[in-house]
Every structure is written in structure tokens, then in C-alpha cells.
Amino acid sequence: MTRPQVVCVLDWHGEPPYGLTAVGFAPDQLAEAEALASAALGGLVQPASWEGADPGLRRRVVRACRPIPTEGLWHVSDDRPGTTEDRARRAGLRQLADEWPHARPLAGHEAGPGLTALVRLTALVCRMPPEILLDAEEDLLDVYDTYSVGALADDPEEP
Fold first, then answer.
1. CA spacing 20 to 30 A to 19: which of 33, 76, 120, 128?
2. Which H helix or E strand runs over 155?
3. With the C-alpha atoms ordered 31, 53, 20, 89, is the resulting torsion angle positive or negative?
4. For 92-132, what is each residue's pLDDT tens digit?
């Protein structure tokens, strides 16, 4: 059975720990997702951290993002000592292709400002320490029906 094509907007965190975040959308819902994300996040100044953000802001953002039609979230981080940014990025893209083979990344200019803001904010949430637990109404990851947040698998190209 062939899975339907998904397009995804990527965010790369280029400072250790490195991180690659992908939020997927059905191609036929991309315009709707962009409009809803723009309405939800337009004018939002991204907080320095999600756990440090005002709980009222977190609740408002989560509530506003719930209607955005997404096909899932995928995130990996790489905090291995001695890993270069380039190596971590290549390994993250390979792992994304292996784990989400039906997803086609959008080129940077293809993603609108709303979807770009959504994936950047989601990436910020994914970098939150795992021991911090938030209620569903404050947890942005709760807006995704499916998501995967983890560490980069061992890089087979690494010596």
C-alpha cells in the first residue's frame, strides 16, 4: 500500500545540541494550513524557551494552533560530543528520509510565514528538557495527532 504524499516544512537548529524538526501537511491542505497558522501565530514574538513562557501565552498559542491541519511532527536532536553541524544535519536528513519516506521537504521559499513560524515554535518546544511536563492545554506537541521526538540514530558514516 502506498502512503499519500506529505509535504513538510523543516527547521534546523544549528547550535549544539543540533536538531532537525519537520512538520508535515497534506498537499491539498497547504493553503488552509498556512492561513490558519498565520492567523494563529502572526505577530507572535517567539519566546526564548517554551517552559519559560507565560502559561497564559502557552494556552492561547496551543488553542489557536489546534485547528491547523497537519499530518504529523518529526524531530531528532544530536548532542553527541565532537559531531559537526554539517555531519549532524546530513544524518538528520537521512534519518528523516528513512523514517518518513513519504514526506517531501518544501524548499525554503515554498513555505509561507505561518507554517515557518509553526515549525520554528514546534522546534523550540521539542528542545525543552524531557523531564518538564506540561498540561495538554499548554503543550504544543498535543496539537499533533502523531509525532516522534527523539535522538539521532547512530550515524553509519561516522568513523
1. 33
2. none
3. positive
4. 999 999 999 999 998 767 889 999 999 999 999 999 988 88
